[in-house]
């Protein structure tokens, strides 16, 4: 069966602060991320994260999936981690990755995506999340 | 049987949709889905930046749309970069993009219609970025 892909992204700028990802690049108000009609399962996540390396610190990043589109309740997933010894010259190009999962969904209901920086405050971190739905 | 199409382009500002329509020496490759092909089976996507902007923190987004893509636009994140400018006289670290490979993309398409391949950077501008996308079609 075919798949459907939905994405949200956003920037986390404070440590231990739940930040909702609500935009998609040039789409500043795409609205709620609804489980596609007919979707049976959240089959995979594709995740990408980059920190601006502006603080000599180290931290880890994770996301939370919540909302009525997830009948079994919230889920969490590690996205990545970064650290630099000095606040100048740091350049990173971390790879996006795809992880297969098997999470039931409720079609036409909303899934909310949040991201957080745990550990030390590493600066500004942008996180992108793609939900891969199996139809 | 598989068929492929590769395009690339420059994404030089955030939150700006860029249509990827070139292929190196081929300035206008056909974006028509080959006859008989019914799905995008695999996707390879990569991007890297010159890191010339300070405090950059961006992710890259692929958009697959157009009349060929059944079920509406599909939006996929495929990479990220973070950038700090270097101190005067220092060498800068390179930005080496690692391709995201999706081996079972399974996106339904209509053969002989046109697919639109676009990319964006989102977040904080890291500098100039080049991205490349390959779609592998299958029956």
What do these coordinates show?
Chain A is mainly β. Chain A has one domain (3-134): Jelly Rolls (Sandwich), CATH 2.60.120. Helices cover 0% and strands 51% of the residues of chain A. Chain A has a 4-stranded antiparallel sheet with strand order 1-9-3-7, with no helix packed on it. A 4-stranded antiparallel sheet of chain A has the order 2-8-4-5, with no helix packed on it. The relative contact order of chain A is 0.41. The mean pLDDT of chain A is 96. In chain B, strands 1, 3, 6, 7 and 9 form a 5-stranded antiparallel sheet that branches. Chain B has a single domain (2-24, 32-85, 95-138), classed as Sandwich (Jelly Rolls). The mean pLDDT of chain B is 95. Chain B is mainly β and 139 residues long. Chain B is 0% helix and 48% strand.
Oligomer: heterodimer
Radius of gyration of chain B: 16 Å
Shape of chain A: elongated
CATH fold-level name of chain A: Jelly Rolls
